Amino acid sequence: MKDIVRTWLESGRIDLFLGYRLVDGHPIPHCFSKERLEEVEQLTESLARYPLEKIAHQMLQKDPAVRIGLMARDCTQRSVRVLAAWNQIDMDRIRVLTMSCCPSDAKDKAFCSYLQEPETGPVRKSNGMPSTGDPDDCRVLPAEERLRRWLYEFQKCIKCYGCRDICPVCFCKDCGLEHEDLMDKGVVPPEVPLFHLIRAVHMAGRCVDCGLCEEACPVGIPLRLLYRKVNGIVTDRFGYRVGQTKDQSPFNVLGEFSPLELSSLDD
Hints:
The protein is an alpha/beta fold. The chain has two domains: 2-98, no CATH class; 135-238. The protein has eight helices and five strands; from the N terminus they run H-E-E-E-H-E-H-E-H-H-H-H-H. Strands 1, 2, 3, 4 and 5 form a five-stranded mixed sheet that branches. It is elongated and about 60 Å long. Keywords: Iron, Iron-sulfur, Metal-binding.
């Protein structure tokens, strides 16, 4: 991996490479460059996860001409595809170097769903284990009990915005979750269930199921279960699997599109 990154930088294929570097024994995101090529020796894979693709997106917003190499798990690759489908990044400016997915020494089980076509990078060591969770499991509960359960979860929210801030596919410049007509400032928990339902709608057809939101949530709200449910509806209605193809989201109306036939929404 180090040799590949060094070759990319020396040859000019990329200007910068986003990966991990050990600092005081902990791997943190680091931007490697040709000017500091010796730092590539410190390149490492990370058991901890950071949204490197979100950092790459922010860098490209500031300098659209920069060419970025990206250390990427499968979920990172899905995020890159989603960002490209929403015209947030230019795929010609991103070069992906795939890394091992979990499980790892730190996690003996990984709730990973992954690409069906591993064509986005020259290195591929292993896949994560398929998820054991299924949003349809909730259907065995009566509707009233499901509602009580979700209201209980939502009421734990402290409105830290950790789920939004770490999400690799949250890119709105003006976030509806901070709009004064929707959310009262200084109110904790935020209005239940409006806050989390707004975010769930935004995640439909966009969530790549990376699980970073759940890892960031300090009160343990099962956000992944909620977003899987809305994504499942998108898959059932439109046949769209997020990040697994180069197709645009059915909710992306930029460019060419065809009207949705109302009959397709009939149950």
